[in-house]
Design brief:
This protein has helices spanning 65-74, 85-90, 92-100, 124-142, 159-165, 188-199, 229-244; strands at 52-58, 80-83, 104-107, 148-149, 169-170, 175-176, 208-212, 248-249, 272-276, 282-287, 293-300, 306-311, 322-327, 333-337, 348-349, 357-364, 373-378, 384-387, 399-402, 411-415, 424-428, 434-439, 445-452, 458-462, 475-479, 484-489, 495-502, 511-514. It is α+β, with helices and mostly antiparallel strands. Zinc ion binds next to loops.
């Protein structure tokens, strides 16, 4: 890894900038809107298509979760995670990442004790305490309360009356991969047996597949291994087999695919960069998911008419990222949806007067309504405004979210940078300090802190999601000498490292990351 001379001056520290934020709304605490509780145990995936399959991961989160999430992100597969409350409490960032990646979080009790391990067995009172404590923990960490409970070990004692009383549904499975029985080391035979079990659906059109991303049972590690590398190794082949058989991957709500903010331009789930050249051509630089490039190709022309361009997640609501751009001549903002495979839909105007903004970018879903939004830094008074997207290429009422941002021309969102489950904003102050403004998930900021200095040497900031493939969102920075640098985020608001990932980028008037 080559280090950047400026980056060597990166430092963390707090500097009073007199940068005030407007009144904050209460922390996001959305009550779950659960489907009507099921009268029986659920053991088949929602039938939202002719063939659907629900991948479920129990007993986490734990150290193997990032590897599982990385595979699901790469293949755009939405899954359901039955976590124990004890593990959620032990791994809060990982718990939040499940939700910020777009998966469904569900309840697997707090202690993962079987009826025989509890004095008096599973009474309604015992289960109510286990399930609701876990639900409260998940709500506190992610703002969302679970709707589904899976009993540890699949025991059914008193489960249905308890979950119904809580407004939840109980979930079992139709396919047990027995991945928890696999040995504590990578083994081709083990991965093969997980693949064979997971894909042996006996012709059922809506299987629920049981897998594990951690260990919550109480046997000693020498008896049951906590190693889940074989599950991770099996996962791409399980996904490929179901895709080849025409299955759609769904969570237990029937949701499919990961949220638009996590999707890229070329459709391979690896972050990309779009950049214009002085001749007006638009180029797509396809990331390889490992801090480099697969290649680049022209994907448009005539972009001289634009003086701002940024990716805005699934702004159009069609399941693919949209690119927004501003026309130089009249300040109108236009939406150009992509087709999710490196091509384009039809462009259309989505409003006028946007030349009032000195900087424009999308923070993803900043207000927590499920749809990506746009931020505008007003040129005249340095105020920052949120324009919430309505999920269909239009707007909900906009409002001011900050002031004192005059001179913060380089401002961008890398998604959830500090691992609290909500998208954040990074901005370079006129003195070169890089500031992290942590989003609160409901359209405001919860805090701000300095996460670097010396950033005045960069002409543009962008984010292509997880460019390095480490599992966490990164920041890409373009120096005025045309070199492009990746600053790898550590998911707690800091950096794991930085390296040069390109040169010759000075002839790119407009540049944005998609991923
Ligand atoms: Zn379990």
């Amino acid at each position: 890894m080559r280090y950047h001379p400026l980056a060597a001056r990166l430092s963390v520290g707090l500097t009073a900038l007199g940068l005030a934020l407007t009144a904050l709304a209460a922390p996001a605490a959305r009550a779950a809107v659960c489907p009507a509780p099921s009268a029986a145990f659920i053991s088949s995936a929602p039938a939202t298509a002719a063939r659907t399959v629900a991948l479920t991961f129990d007993d986490g989160p734990g150290p193997f979760l990032p590897a599982v999430l990385k595979v699901l992100r790469e293949y755009d597969v939405r899954a359901t995670f039955f976590d124990t409350g004890a593990h959620d409490a032990a791994f809060p960032s990982l718990t939040r990442q499940i939700v910020s990646d777009g998966h469904l979080l569900a309840d697997h009790s707090w202690d993962h004790l079987y009826p025989s391990q509890v004095a008096g067995g599973w009474t309604v009172g015992y289960l109510t305490d286990q399930i609701s404590r876990t639900a409260s923990q998940q709500q506190a960490l992610t703002g969302q309360s679970p709707c589904f409970f899976r009993p540890p070990g699949g025991f059914t004692d008193n489960v249905l009356p308890t979950v119904q009383q809580l407004g939840m549904s109980a979930v079992l499975w139709s396919i047990d991969t027995l991945d928890w029985q696999q040995p504590g080391a990578l083994s081709a035979a083990s991965a093969n047996s997980i693949v064979a079990a997971a894909t042996n659906n006996g012709g059922a059109p809506h299987p629920i597949v049981l897998m594990h991303d951690a260990k919550a049972s109480h046997e000693a590690n020498s008896v049951v291994s906590p190693f889940r590398g074989n599950t991770v190794a099996a996962l791409p082949r399980i996904i490929a087999a179901y895709r080849a058989a025409g299955f759609q991957f769904v969570d237990l709500n029937g949701g499919s695919g990961l949220r638009g903010h996590n999707t890229d331009f070329s459709g391979d789930q690896l972050g990309d960069v779009l950049a214009t050249r002085p001749d007006g051509s638009l180029w797509a630089y396809r990331g390889n998911g490992a801090n480099g490039w697969q290649g680049w190709a022209p994907v448009g022309s005539g972009w001289q008419i634009a003086d701002a361009m940024f990716a805005a997640g699934d702004f159009a609501g069609d399941g693919h990222p949209a690119v927004l751009y501003r026309r130089k001549d009249d300040g109108s903002l236009w939406m150009w949806p992509t087709d999710g495979a490196g091509g384009w839909g039809a462009t259309r105007s989505i409003g006028g007067g946007w030349n009032a903004c000195s900087a424009l970018f999308s923070p993803g879903d900043f207000d927590g309504d499920g749809h990506p939004d746009v931020m505008c830094l007003r040129r005249d008074d340095g105020s920052l405004w949120l324009y919430p997207g309505d999920g269909a290429g239009g707007w909900r009422p906009w409002f001011q979210i900050g002031h004192g941002f005059a001179g913060y021309e380089r401002i961008v969102s890398p998604g959830d940078f500090d691992g609290d489950g909500y998208p954040d904003v990074l901005a370079v102050a006129p003195n070169g300090a890089l500031w992290l403004f942590s989003g609160n998930g409901s359209g405001g900021f919860r805090s701000q802190r300095q996460v670097g200095s010396g950033w005045q040497g960069f002409s543009a900031l962008l984010s292509a999601g997880d460019f390095t493939g480490e599992g966490f969102p990164d920041l890409l920075a373009l120096r005025s000498d045309g070199s492009l640098w990746d600053y790898a985020g550590n998911f707690t608001g800091g950096w794991t490292g930085w390296s040069q990932v390109g040169s010759g980028w000075s002839g790119t008037p407009l540049v944005t990351g998609v991923g």
